[in-house]
Amino acid sequence: MAFVVVREGLFTVQCVLMVAKEKVSEQMVKFANALSRESIVDVAGIVSVPGEAMKGTSQQVEIQVRKIYCINRAVPILPISIEDAARSEKEIEKAEKIFRSFLRSEGFRGIHTPKLMGGTSEGGAAVFRLDYKGQPACLAQSPQLHKQISINGDFRRVYEVGPVFRAEDSFTHRHLCEFTGLDAEMEIKEHYSEVMDIIDRLFVTIFDHLNENCKGELEAVSRQYEFEPLKYLRKTLQLTFPEGVQMLKEAGIEVDPYGDLNTDIERKLGKLVRDKYDTEFYILHRYPSAIRPFYTMPCYDDPLYSNSFDVFIRGEEIISGAQRIHEPEFLTKRAEACGIDVKTIATYLDSFKFGAWPHGGFGVGLERVVMLFCNLTNIRKTSLFPRDPQRLAP
């Protein structure tokens, strides 16, 4: 027999594994007993009400386990125990000392510092570097990696809206050095399409709200910059990257099936999608692994492709997103294969050793969404004081 307590946020329930013919084997019981604390598991079984009140869990039921899967195994020794973190105020001093020591070490430093981050961000490219009381820091290019770390705790969804800074010299109609970013990271229960479904519901709701509640403002914009209302579907179209490549091929446009699409090709694909599906808002997913960041999860059925996506409005990309690799050994191998010095991302890699949920996320610049929704010719028309490589003041 084995007893396993599983936790979902603040709720706990006891699971019981008992050797029985054709139900639970001795091997399964040994497997359950060997699970390290804070490992991520999936459990299937029958819910029952025990004869006596449950004292050690929040839920007054038991699960008679029939199947148990370890999704991600935590390291045997954790830097802080859940029991220490949950102690009463009188008992908390010891836990505080342990936790503060952990924060000062290579732990979850800077999770809640989206506007100013220590070290580097997203590999260290295109950031504004500055001195922070003698320590190297940078204005946030994106809080994405920090949100991934927070997902490894008890958060299941993390959303953040705020200023984002990029130091790249992009002299285009759709790039700014400072913009308003919407970033999200979320637990994935079964498939990375769950992230795309969130985007579908979010943006269809946004578009509906603008069309229904901002008619006067949209008419004012249209009088100065005439545009046709955005075409979008009730259920957002999702195409795979190979399907997009095939559409281009049928139109006489040859592209590398394992390469990226340039801006001109993306616009041409957008027109093909509009003509065929009568929508200007769609999601393209299963991008080639070679053109995505090291932390992107490869497709289980073909590692040449990945569980990633881009989202387009009127043929221009507004969102990049993906399922992230949550297994620390695999994540380290991918970083090394991409030529990344793992010492520079040790904090990030270490966070996955303490039990990490399968998760994914996305980031979007809201000025670009406004530009394309109103079909403006330049993103600078969406910002009162646009910051670009050549403009700082006013």
From TrEMBL:
GO molecular function: aspartate-tRNA ligase activity; ATP binding; RNA binding
Pfam families: tRNA-synt_2
A Gene Ontology BP annotation from the UniProt entry: aspartyl-tRNA aminoacylation
UniProt GO cellular component terms: aminoacyl-tRNA synthetase multienzyme complex; cytosol
CDD domains named among the record's database cross-references: AspRS_cyto_N (cd04320), AsxRS_core (cd00776)
Catalyses which reaction(s): tRNA(Asp) + L-aspartate + ATP = L-aspartyl-tRNA(Asp) + AMP + diphosphate
Aminoacyl-transfer RNA synthetases class-II family profile domain mapped to chain residues: 96-386
Entry keyword Ion transport: no
E.C. code: 6.1.1.12
Annotated compartments: Cytoplasm
Annotated InterPro entries: Aa-tRNA-synt_II, aa-tRNA-synth_II, aa-tRNA-synth_II/BPL/LPL, Asp-tRNA_synthase_2, Asp/Asn-tRNA-synth_IIb, NA-bd_OB-fold
Highest taxon in the source lineage: Eukaryota
Keyword presence, Nucleotide-binding: yes
EC top class named in words: ligase
Segments traversing the membrane: none
Main localization (coarse): cytoplasm
Keyword entries, A-Z: Aminoacyl-tRNA synthetase, ATP-binding, Cytoplasm, Ligase, Nucleotide-binding, Protein biosynthesis
Family (UniProt): Belongs to the class-II aminoacyl-tRNA synthetase family. Type 2 subfamily.
Protein name, UniProt field: aspartate--tRNA ligase
Organism this protein belongs to: Chenopodium quinoa (Quinoa)
